[in-house]
Amino acid sequence: EDAYPSVERIEDALSGALMNAGPIIHPPLIIMNAAPLEHFETWDIHNEGTQPSTRHVTDQLDQERIAIRKALGYKAPHFPLRDHYQDDGDEWMYGRKAHDDLTDSGDWREDIDLQTHRYMLEDTALGLSLFASVGRWAGKPMPIGEAVLAMGSAITGEDLYALGRSLENLGLDKLSTAGMQTLLHDGMVALK
Predict the structure, then answer these.
(1) Fewer beta carbons within 10 Å, N or C terminal of the chain?
(2) Helices (H), the chain
(3) Model's pTM, two decimal places?
(4) Domain span including residue 83
(5) Any residues with CB less than 8 A from the CB of 66 and at least 6 apart, and which?
(6) What are the boundaries of the signal sequence (predicted)?
(7) What is the pLDDT of residues 103-154, one digit of tens each?
(8) What does pLDDT average to over the chain?
């Protein structure tokens, strides 16, 4: 804390995983920009692709993420994604004006292959699948998240949820709440 005074303590690894912004920002960006990504040689999804309709989807997806965190008893700050796009109000985890710095850099104008790009394979198949499975497990389904996964699956021709890092694929979906807490605090040895 002395070296990094802005670091926030978290309760456990799942709390940290549910703070990952990648599965909230990137799946809607890559899926809602699929047509221009396929049409243009390069397309900046963080600049041209971040339009009001995309923001509405990411904001609702983020509300699903926060609802899961709250259902699991995780405390604030939850770092709502909307703060990433604002110049005032609560400071987001990457600091003030992080989005402006990102888009002004021009670093994100790239050729994105929808079948192989990390936003589809990592943030959608792995990250969003984890969030959706934790939501199912916690009784807080993610209808927006499930829809984004379904659209990504249609685009890639693969069942991204089935391929993903879900609690089912990790063999953890049958754990009780107490069992999950034990696992998160004591590790796999506690489950033997």
Answers:
(1) C
(2) 13-17, 22-32, 34-39, 52-71, 98-105, 118, 129-138, 143-156, 160-163, 167-170, 177-186
(3) 0.87
(4) 13-191
(5) 78, 80
(6) none
(7) 666 666 677 899 999 999 999 999 999 999 999 999 999 999 999 999 999 9
(8) 88
